[in-house]
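If it is no trouble, might I ask you for a protein's amino acid sequence along with its backbone structure tokens?
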Amino acid sequence: MNTLLERQQEQQLAHLVRHTLDGACRDLPRDISAHLAQASQRALDRQKQPVLGLRLAGVSHIVSAGLGRPLRTTMMILALLTGMVGTWYWNTIQAAEDNADVDSALLSDDLPVAAYTDAGFRAWLEHNADSDN
């Protein structure tokens, strides 16, 4: 019931604001109201056009000044490099964690010390590590 009362109050406020703005618009000089109507029409026409590129508020003057293409290219290269470095870093961390898991498993097992120095055992470990990936 509380939300119904709030909605009614919001509608009354919206009606009052609209009424006040409509009255203030009637008192504007004709040249200002014509200029506002033209600006409104241009905005509606621009809204109907498809957006062909990236548009950021406040930087359109930079893009229109000719810095758009080099800036976009630089941003794409930076994003690609960031992704590559992040992937390399993630893989390095993952490999270290995998090695730590293998080391922990080996140390917690009851294998004789000679098994760790055996070349065949090392080859078996490497083969199993490769088959897990």
The chain has a mean pLDDT of 78. The chain has five helices and no strands. The radius of gyration is 34 Å. The longest helix spans residues 60-108.
